[in-house]
Amino acid sequence: MLTQPLLYSLQVLALCTYPELLESDGFPEDAKCKARSIMKQLDNGSVGSYSVAYITQHVPQRIASFIQRRDGAIPSDPRNIIVCSGATQGILTIISLVTNTEEPLRTGIMISVPRYSVYMDAIVLSGAVPVDYPLDEENEWALNVQSMRESLYIARKHCNPKVLCVINPGNPTGQVQSRECIEEVIRLAAEEKLLIFADEVYQENIFAPGSTFHSFKKVLFEMGPQFSKKVQLVSIHSVSKGFHGECGFRAGFLEFVNIDPSVFEVLYLLKSFSVPPVPGVIALDVTIDPPQPGDTSYDTFIAEKQKALSNLGEKARLAEMLLNQVPGIQCNPIQGALHFFPRIHIPDKAVRLAKAKGQEPDVFFCHSLLEETGIILVPGSDFGQVQGTYHIRITIINPIEELENILNNIIGFYRKFVQEYS
Amino acid sequence: MLTQPLLYSLQVLALCTYPELLESDGFPEDAKCKARSIMKQLDNGSVGSYSVAYITQHVPQRIASFIQRRDGAIPSDPRNIIVCSGATQGILTIISLVTNTEEPLRTGIMISVPRYSVYMDAIVLSGAVPVDYPLDEENEWALNVQSMRESLYIARKHCNPKVLCVINPGNPTGQVQSRECIEEVIRLAAEEKLLIFADEVYQENIFAPGSTFHSFKKVLFEMGPQFSKKVQLVSIHSVSKGFHGECGFRAGFLEFVNIDPSVFEVLYLLKSFSVPPVPGVIALDVTIDPPQPGDTSYDTFIAEKQKALSNLGEKARLAEMLLNQVPGIQCNPIQGALHFFPRIHIPDKAVRLAKAKGQEPDVFFCHSLLEETGIILVPGSDFGQVQGTYHIRITIINPIEELENILNNIIGFYRKFVQEYS
Description:
The structure is a homodimer of 422-residue chains. With 422 residues, chain A is α/β, with parallel strands linked by helices. Chain A is built from 15 helices and twelve strands. In chain A, the strands form three sheets. Chain A has a seven-stranded mixed β-sheet, sandwiched between helices. In chain A, strands 9-12-11 form a three-stranded antiparallel β-sheet. In chain A, helix 7 links the parallel strand 4 (159-167) and strand 5. In chain A, helix 1 crosses helix 11 (278-288) and helix 3 (52-71) packs parallel to helix 11 (278-288). The longest helix of chain A is centred in the last third of the chain and has 27 residues, at 298-324. The two termini of chain A are 37 Å apart. The interface between A and B is large, with 52 and 52 residues.
């Protein structure tokens, strides 16, 4: 388990669910106050009602304030914010919306290699074409505009690339992109008229010392009006992916920049198939409007947050340290998010054996690991990887003792595997 | 508001959300017991976790028991049950799944006129073709197999009808179909090789004396193995649409009969874009596994249920009585669900005026009503209606005094409208 769910969040949700609890002594005053203000905005004060105004007006107003606090003085307009049923649904909706299956040249969606696997499913389901661009593994998984440009130009021969998807902090790679990288990507998008889809669901999970999250929106506006008035941007965040990791609630939001309001009409139709669940939207509401200094729950909230992030940081350092000691394994710094993607050298003999079995070599490695140790890892090929390189995806969700144990087992098995096939 | 949400349901959800409440005296023992058993099945005991086993295994087992209790001795297999994020999502998923946009002849989806409007959106979005069949308004909105057959034969000239959608109890029409009608529909589906999609989300909202809900599954199995081993059936139910009407939770389920297991693999991919929210699944769990005789909460639960249903019944009788007194308005018996669809005669002069304005006559009526009285009604044309007939959709959700007032205002306006245009 990542960490305990945030106490304040559960308290507010329990109060809204069963309002008789507002009379109980067992809840802090600020949680009661937040619950009362939410219930005033719910239809009939009930978590079981549709509550369209709460979802489409009240919560977007608070999200706009959250974004403004996050990005400094840059304005955010609630009318450009849509609450969705979690990030996956948001990704699918946007990719469906931009994909035109009736044009002679198919819609291209640029997506990193490696990437969160839902992107490929969404692209294929929508009838678009994936346009892969590699992250720069030698450079801590940085975005590399030169590679992006090369992929783009090749792709234009057979499809019409419209959208550039960027995942920051990285999934499954765990890096946090620098401000410079983001600026370059925005310049590329401006030149090449690409819509940027910024998957920023891990924006609150930054734990490496010196790493800072820069939102695409912030960088875009700091680059001045020649960019901020022109480049189309859709950014996504989710309640599933904060440091608290409440993935069962299914709520998130999209912010749109420079998108024509007429798009919202079509979006509304698509979205009508996925009305966000009210308890999830309440969890989102609490996430983007947490206790403030002076509130009863503030100290607890900050302590929980710091504990969650420092745990993640500690696990990240442990994983890097253990793996980078092993000849044949290279692990980039893990700066944020919840996963990492170390590269493993697979001996030629194992590569040949895997291919003879009709398997990818990393899949063969993961199957062998499972048979020998009982550990299930997702092979790199599920996320995409540069040809001839092999990876495994590991999460830092487990408690540290468990993670250490898992890593030691993987390392032990890897050493034996290399020996066996050398 | 339809009714108060069910106390027991909110208690269980609050307990699961904030487990410290299990120590409190403010909750009945059976709610605590149900909450404890649910929490054992949630990942980390937390409502904020994905909880795949809870959603895909534990709850389907209890749904199968619910279906068996509902249908008598007919078996239900949890492996054929999928929990979804509400009925709308379920409808879209199934219609997408059966629609093949690459066949030369487009996929046809048979759907009643009138029908819940989401069906048309789902059909158009999926790239299928709607094949309308009229309900028999002269016969209390009964399913009429003769009309279905005529629509089907005409449609086969230009598309490939694969699915027959039936909404029972009716939305927006409020009728409950007889066992005989359902049998005839099943015979038709068997002869014509159509998959039946039975929208049974209002199955628990039956309030007219003498009306009984017959599930398609039950009737199918009672017709013997020559039908029950052959006819493909997908039935949908939702936590939104019980007598408690908890539409903000977004959870429901689909039961599949005679569907090849390989379909589930594709379904799993589509479904992965719409992971059901855990709080909603808990609400569903409680709905299909309510307090039983002898449990602490049983008497309260039964009293709430009976009150909700008798309120609906009272409002239905009032609406029929008031509207059927008015020359030019005909209202069929309202037997279940939450809406009704009275027919209104619109004078020729008004029909001509509306057409000159480029409006449907019922839209013109509803606009005039809104301007004069402030009452918003959805015009019949939004749901489909037989050409030359006009309807309005009214809900029985408002409290009875409010409904009476609304109906009297509609009637007063209708009389003036008829006078003005005669």
